[in-house]
Design brief:
157 residues; mainly alpha; AhpD-like
Amino acid sequence: MESRLDYFGHPLAGKVLKHINSAGKAVSDSTLPATIQELVKIRASQINGCGFCTDMHTKDAALAGETAQRLNLVAVWREATVFTEAERAALEVAEQGTRIADAAGGVSDEAWAAAAKHFDEEQLVALISLLAIINAYNRINVVNQQPAGGYQPGQFG
């Protein structure tokens, strides 16, 4: 499979990605735990069918010390016993926030309340922002049919 165009090499895309990456840096520098950030990026990417982002974020998470067991169970986190209550709350918000078109009203009050038990206001802002960023990246890569499998951790700096 080849991508439809060289999106990452295009000058206009470079300008767009610069801003998305700046937003991503603000989130990665927030107090939202890095483990939760990676789990959320993986789950949203799985839901959106973004192989490129799923490949990237599972490899980045593994390099950061995430276990193969947990990575293999992200897609079925509800049935898995390896995730903390905070991680489960973040994954629920991630799913509902990614599936806005499928869920009447977006993120439910129950899902939000569960997340608010585990995260302070800055972390909740980071979680919402992270969902917006990863969903944007997923859409770019899915529309462009960016192939998965070749990502090397750190290749984007």
